[in-house]
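ok so I'm stuck.
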Amino acid sequence: MSTPHVLLGLLATGTKHGYELKRAHDARLPRARPLAFGQVYATLGRLQRDGLVAAAGQEREGGPERTAYALTGDGRAALDRWLSEVEPPMPYVAGTLFAKVVVALLAADVDRARAWLIAQRRAHTERLRELTAVKTSPTAALDELVAVDFAIAHLDADLRWLHTTLDRVADWHREVHS
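replied:
not stuck anymore, here's the structure
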């Protein structure tokens, strides 16, 4: 995730101070890792240094003085460029799940590898049930639904892959250990 670009996008909706940006991030990207306040303010400092945001005044609402920030013309242009760049599909298979499956197939006997894959599939299925419950909740916000749809699609792909891999365990083991 590009934190600077996400903050620029949040500022595109109007002037905000760091606390509001952190709250907006965590609300609009509910399944992402929450931003730390220090990360928000450090990123705002770099964006301001680069002329992409500008201080738009001070606010004091029963607490410390807060600097509000606004998107500049250059910031809008940078945001537009970033949004217009198509994200390339991942060129390499990477991730802890993939690595663990390969290592389990290499290091374990067929029964242990199969048991690990079944346990992993069970964990994925349980998470899928949890997310489906969120998706069918009448109180789920649109932000949450978009995030849940994304997660469900990825879990579904992982489950299909785990199923296919389970079908191949014996063949893999014969190939590696013969």
